[in-house]
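pls design
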């Protein structure tokens, strides 16, 4: 990951509303790599059968079923309430620039579904009664699987965009040099921001662009189990977004005329970087 941005939810909604006045864009499913209901049902059935047939659970097997292994251009971090805005943004960026973004609610499956399957198999004593210690074991393993996949995916991304719905930021401000304290009820967003701050700076290999142009469909793709469906009990997490650049508006990117024909997605990504702060 080499670029890190944040945009206020209110600003993003305004930019999206302006764009949608002249162009139709889907807000319920990614147009390039979405997960539909049948996919979710099939996966749940596969995992249920695997768990029932095995006393020892191979975490790699679960991870490979749950999480994508493709390399995203952008990682879009958002709360579950803002999924439509994140999906709409990702679809516009893909339509205009060929950028593929990682969005948890479209690509990952609900982690709580898997936790419920494991608890029912290993922790359930009788109806509505579970073994506390075994539930904790399941929870810790689910957390480990999810956090490791979060880290890998963010590390593989070229850029990171955080959709900020925290009203407290109105009095704080964000600049290239300061550190912004973010409060969130989501431990997963907390982890995403922590990982973003600690990862080494790297970018996708631009040198391969000319070689890859003949096979764009096989090159970097992807965009993120809704990772934050746990609502009770509530905890507040704080983290520092270090040197995150605030996007004041995406109107330039949404309205620019850009011909992505015969251009590599990374060229579109670099062009997007160049105009969002103008």
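designed seq:
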């Amino acid at each position: 990951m080499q670029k890190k941005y944040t945009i206020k939810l209110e600003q993003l909604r305004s930019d999206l509303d302006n764009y949608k006045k002249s162009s139709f864009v889907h807000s319920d499913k990614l147009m390039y790599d979405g997960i539909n209901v049948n996919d979710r049902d099939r996966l749940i059935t596969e995992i249920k059968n695997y768990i029932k047939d095995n006393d020892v659970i191979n975490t790699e097997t679960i991870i490979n079923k749950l999480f994508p292994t493709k390399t995203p251009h952008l990682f879009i971090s958002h709360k579950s309430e803002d999924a439509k805005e994140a999906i709409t943004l990702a679809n516009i960026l893909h339509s205009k620039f060929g950028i593929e973004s990682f969005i948890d609610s479209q690509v990952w499956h609900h982690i709580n579904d898997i936790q419920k399957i494991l608890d029912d198999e290993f922790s359930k004593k009788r109806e509505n009664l579970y073994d506390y210690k075994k539930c904790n074991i399941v929870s810790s393993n689910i957390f480990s699987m999810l956090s490791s996949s979060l880290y890998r995916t963010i590390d593989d991304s070229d850029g990171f965009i955080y959709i900020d719905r925290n009203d407290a930021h109105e009095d704080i401000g964000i600049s290239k040099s300061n550190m912004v304290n973010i409060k969130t009820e989501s431990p997963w967003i907390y982890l995403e921001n922590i990982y973003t701050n600690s990862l080494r700076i790297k970018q996708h290999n631009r040198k391969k662009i000319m070689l890859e142009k003949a096979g764009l469909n096989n090159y970097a793709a992807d965009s993120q189990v809704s990772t934050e469906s746990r609502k009770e009990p509530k905890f507040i997490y704080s983290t520092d977004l270090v040197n995150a650049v605030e996007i004041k508006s995406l109107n330039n990117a949404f309205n620019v005329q850009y011909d992505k024909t015969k251009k590599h997605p990374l060229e579109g990504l670099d062009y997007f970087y160049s105009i969002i702060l103008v």
